[in-house]
Amino acid sequence: MVTDLEMAMQTLIEVFHKHAKRAKASVHHLDRDELKHLVPKELSLHDDKMKELLQRLQNDSERGLDFKAFYSLIVGLTLACNQCYEDHINKHGGGITASKEDTS
């Protein structure tokens, strides 16, 4: 049985390669156009945050992103989301409602 963490890892890999396939030069990098397509499709960011992220990515990545850089981007976004989650918990209590039963 595949664990939640293994599924998350698989999903990251599949999302990267699904969008990297669009490149004609290399399937191992996301170019600027692919990044422009990936961000709004795969991330539910507010328009101003999405524009800011895309601008930063375009400025930082002349050759595009390889999987390591893509993963670092996702880790950074996850850390920011976790901080928001912790701030919410500290302020309001509660937590994320599980979408499936805890099997542990």
Helix and strand topology:
Layout: H1 4-20, E1 29-30, H2 32-42, H3 47-60, E2 65-66, H4 67-92
GO molecular function, one term: calcium ion binding
Organism: Eptatretus burgeri
Protein name: S100/CaBP-9k-type calcium binding subdomain domain-containing protein
List keywords for this structure.
104 residues, mainly alpha, Recoverin, domain 1, two-stranded antiparallel sheet, 4 helices, 2 strands, 65% helix, globular
Descriptive account of the structure:
This protein has 104 residues and is mainly alpha-helical. It has a domain at 17-83: Recoverin, domain 1 (Orthogonal Bundle), CATH 1.10.238.10. Helix content is 65%, strand content 4%. The chain has 4 helices and 2 strands; from the N terminus they run αβααβα. It has helices at 4-20, 32-42, 47-60, 67-92, and strands spanning 29-30, 65-66. Strands 1-2 form a two-stranded antiparallel ribbon. Helix 2 (32-42) packs antiparallel against helix 3 (47-60). The protein is globular. GO terms for molecular function: calcium ion binding; calcium-dependent protein binding. Residues 5-51 form the S100/CaBP-9k-type calcium binding subdomain domain. Pfam families: S_100. One of its GO terms (cellular component) is extracellular space. InterPro entries: EF-hand-dom_pair, S100_Ca-bd_sub.
